[in-house]
Fold these 4 entries.
Entry 1:
Amino acid sequence: MLTNKTVVLGITGSIAAYKIANVASRLIKLHADVHVIMTENACNFINPITFETLTGHKCLVDTFDRNFEFNVEHVSLAKKADIFLVAPATANIIGKMANGIADDMLSTTLLAAKCPVLVAPAMNTNMYTNPVVQNNLCRLDDFGIKVIEPATGMLACRDTGAGKLPDEDVLIEHILKEIAYPHDLSKKRILITAGPTREAIDPVRFITNHSTGKMGYAIARIAMLRGADVTLISGPVSIDPPMFCDIINVTSAEDMYNAVMANASHSDIIIKAAAVADYRPSTVAAEKIKKSDADSCIELERTKDILGELGKNKKEGQIICGFSMETENLIENSRAKLIKKNADMIAANSLKQEGAGFGTDTNVLTLITENSCEELDMMSKEKAAEKLLDKIMTL
């Protein structure tokens, strides 16, 4: 995901410095070219040899070290960087960055960097909330430097509050958001539905399906990484939502219908990946349940047709993509759905095909539009999400 991307990690004197070893390792596994600059104080918490072993590059500490790869080290590395992450960032380095002080290798290289810069503060909560530090963080924001909000919890000093370095997952996701993909979906508002819905029979039982939400969540994450403003409407699932997306949690088909209709009018692209339960107990059945007659035959009625309603009310320039899960006549049934629902694209897959459908980490999609039918190979759901969004961008 980060092939041919150069990530520079700036590490300062905080106990949280040990966490960055895992960040560096994970970035290497994503095929990034990782370079590390440490302050002298950071070396008291973790040895530079750790990062040299992980990255295969000399860890830079001394501004005047003559054993270097480049002619002018801080300038060359700053030019090479696609992104610069300072983590953990102490109050000291934040103050230097906010006021243009360059008195060591890290602060000097930062001043020469033209790439996006991320700063992850880590310090005692009283230091973090100090007005001077907060003013410096505001100045960084004014300069276009993105500050990653620290986590809250028990700190190394045993105080409790804001100031913890965020988990490695959070730091990695911030880097990916900046440089993993070209931001070809920038300024696009994308509404995505994912997961199943549940239609209550009684306080214990409900009608649902086997959807896990993995496909919809993958689409939401890739769209976010490509710069889109993503709203994800999710039924009940057991997976973590993608970062940087607006999440609306719903339970029933009626809930999902209402959430979709409330957000549809200001969305440029709508992707209905949710597997909505087609039926729910009828009004008559609901009355029987209230009278404790739940064991009698339950009458069912259709839930609202979300995709059909979107097609009827599609605004000019809006793109609507639905999903079709079939057990037979995949292309014919999906193309009929495309026409009937007034959609622009249907992503179809067969429940009988190995590696496709519910609960898997892979999918086999056929992307059907009015004038085309593109069969994709089996691939990860995130890779399938990339292909789906690529196709939508051509419409």
Note: The mean pLDDT is 91.
Entry 2:
Amino acid sequence: MLDYDKEAERYDASRGGEPRAAAAAEAVLGLVPRQARRLLDVACGTGIVTRRVAAARDGLRITGVDLAPAMARRAAARLPGAVVLADSRRLPFRDGQFDAVTSVWLLHLAGGGENVRAIVAECARVLRPGGVYVTTVDKGASHNVGSDIDAVLASRPPSTAHDAADHVESHARAHGLRPAGRARFTGHGQGRSPRRTVADLRRGWFVTLPPGEPLAADFAARLASLPDQDRPRPDPVFSLRAFVKP
């Protein structure tokens, strides 16, 4: 698992920057009702998406929350007075406080099914009746674009996708939420190159290939043998699901 306090400084530049953020914000807003006035962005990270959501719609008051202090500091610089340091499994807000709740690129990092259930439960709790929860799903699958890199990585030890769409929907239904829409957006600037993938592997990006282990070294060698080491393969396409609280 990556240390997101250490990742904060390079996070935006290494993940598509403003073009990716713009695509994410547009897709999220397409699922947030026009009448929404209070929105909570759970795991807002550096606030690069949160700021765009806030700027795009007049009258929408946004609060961001993140667990990593370095990420939250960067978000607070973009959204002064609107960012809270907190755990998404125990949100410091009252029941029914928000018209919409979002969690973009969070559930795949939750560390297990119990944590995903806890996060979805909290997001449902702080939603008012009629409110909408919007979240990314199937994050890992989004990066599989059918490239030669994916062919190499396909043989790595499998990991459980706790943010699989059917699992997330099941958790949402268990807490009174109902499916209300879906969307997709392109992760501009996130197409993998072999050299970049090796670097990600060596810093712990792939949870089933811990850095320093022989298996990780074997995959690094196989990736390093691919052609066009610095040519990015196609960008991932991310999936969003929306759920309404009756």
Note: The chain has ten helices and seven strands.
Entry 3:
Amino acid sequence: MSAKKFKGTGVAIITPFNVKGEIDWISLEKIVNYLNRYVDYLVVLGTTGENPVLSDDEKLQVIQHVISYNAGKIPVVVGVGGYDSQDLSVKLKKISAIEGIDAILSVTPYYNKPSQIGLYEHYKLVAQSSILPIILYNVPGRTGCNLLPETILKLASDFSNIIGVKEASGNPEQIMNLIHKRKDGFLVISGDDALTLPLIAAGADGLISVTANALPELVSRMVKAALNDTFSEARAIHYSILDFTSYMFKEGSPAGVKSALCHLNLCENVLRLPLVPVSIELNQLIKSSMEKFTLNI
């Protein structure tokens, strides 16, 4: 699949749970059907999907259900990462063989803080273990290590199935340096909703969004407008949803967006420990903020 399929708006979808803490398949179907009307691709089992608290069996079920509900309407990207490179290699060989997955999003190893050489070797094994395109995922605020531009550029040069990076370092200078030096066709995708507009202005290729779970039409319109150099429209949308976007992360993600989706009657406001729902005060702010938007559920 061409890397161009992942230019635009991807959404890192939540994993909905019922009041018993079980995966809510009915809500997941509603969410997929809501999102695939507006966004360009779905990202399953990312941070927003509460990946760390799902069993391996639950992860496979989520993948299979999303593929079934989506029915080939838009591409599906699956998050597969970890801090044990050899174990990850085994999982990738199995998961990348599942029909209906279009690419893998693989987060940098967390907790053990590898060097840049270690990160290169890790992703070398990832690339060799997957028959699918790989999108790297750099989010040092969560993982404790920063995948630097020179390492990304070397990986992109050495492995043809490494097609892009979701960049959530929060460092615009680092991201612009990568955009400036990347090879043709290599995607640089924003991993920060609030930074997406300036990053696209600097040459980024789109966004993998949390906010788009709740506001897929508005986020997609903003990204499309920015990619088409219609910055007056993009800027107006950006500022209209900026406060709401900040609420999505104020007490941690995906707690904020699950509150929003509950207000849209798309799922219960339930997370698995150690995550908990947002405070009563923030929940009300999210509800009040959403009332300003016309949403087509």
Note: The chain has one domain: 3-231.
Entry 4:
Amino acid sequence: MPGIPDATWPVSEALRRSARTKLAGEGVPDGPFAAAHVASFAHEAKRWPEERFAALFSHLAAVRHLPIVLLGSASEALVNARVASLAAGAHVFDLAGKTSLPEVLGIVSLADLFVGNDSGLAHLANAAGTPTTVVFGPTDPDATRPWDGPRPDGRPVRLRVVRERVLCAPCRFTRCPLDHACMTGVSVGSVEPGLRSSPYGGAVK
């Protein structure tokens, strides 16, 4: 019988210190924060609408007083900037193109939570043990979601998958030829419960 897959990624204290230094250099205040990935440079259809992310960040700022750290590549900076401009009342720090992959791992390991689209950064946050919420649309969470089975390190599973079931998904189109209902049908209210202060576990599909 096969053993439990090890999808965890231990983060050294040295990497955490480096991440704290990076955050401080970008003006992020010391203390709790939320990390997010709002873009998907190679797959436009996987993006939850920008205004929904912005409303979610405004909610996190109002209810949990969390600053938001946006991650991503330099090619995703325009998407990040648009979301940041829409997030009324939220303190948003855009690190698109400003981090190496090890720095991203360190940052997500320090975050109180991570929220994003189906992307490699969601897998990274989950592997680091950070409470992770992923919005799925045109791709199949049964095939590509982060690992939500038992963790060999004994930490609780803290993955939440949010999706709107539609007949045309999964489709794997990079750009929706229809109405993008798989993503526009996901409300802020359906994503927000996974970002509350209490721990959560297991995939919700």
Note: The two ends are 27 Å apart (CA to CA).
